[in-house]
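Students often ask why we bother encoding 3D structure as a string. The short answer is that it lets us treat folding as translation between two languages. Here is a chain of 238 residues written in the first language.
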Amino acid sequence: MTTYPILPRHVAIIMDGNGRWAKQHKIKIALGHRTGVEALRAIIRESSDLGIEALSLYAFSTENWKRDPGEVEALMGLLLEFFTSEIDELHEKNVCIRILGDKDGMPEKQRTALISAEERTKDNTGLKLNIAINYGGRAELARAARILAKKAAAGEIDPDAIDEAMVADALYTRGLPDVDLLIRTSGEMRLSNFLLYQCAYAEFLFPTVLWPDFSLADYHQALDAFAKRDRRYGGRNS
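And here it is in the second language, the structure alphabet:
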């Protein structure tokens, strides 16, 4: 197994390019998403084997509901299929699943599957697998503000005492390290409302490969590039 002088504790991936990949191969978009799931399986296993602490995946944003109803239906079906077919192996590998996003806004079958996956793996101590579904970064920050406002109104906290740690604790990712490395495939260079707070000091990589073609070699190339970055967090290294 490849070893690195330093590994990111928390990797986030925007899995972009399924639709363009399908178009290139002259197949339905749903098949592009299905092929993307195959790439996802390999990356999850490798992250677990390498000992990466947390892996966050952008699976379905709050904006994705605007897509063609047929594509949304296919994505919902794939989500359900993934959690049905993969949960046993993930649990056996000691993976702890956390859903980032509004589960209550999901269709009933999918919502039940997400809650079940979280409950079954909540005590696992291996890779923290965070799957962003019905997620938006701005919505997450607004939710955190509401949580803290309610606590302040109830007299549980002093508004003047609210600091960054308290904000972080009100996010879906509470208790996890900030993102060290964000990878967005397909060459697009934007966050698309993903983990806005958590990516404050993340290193960004934008490989041009489309997500279904993102291989373990591509992943290792990204990890190698991260290991060579000079991270200063606003300061200077001597």
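Translate back mentally: Strands lie at 10-14, 54-61, 96-100, 128-135, 181-184, 203-205. Keep this in mind for the problem set.
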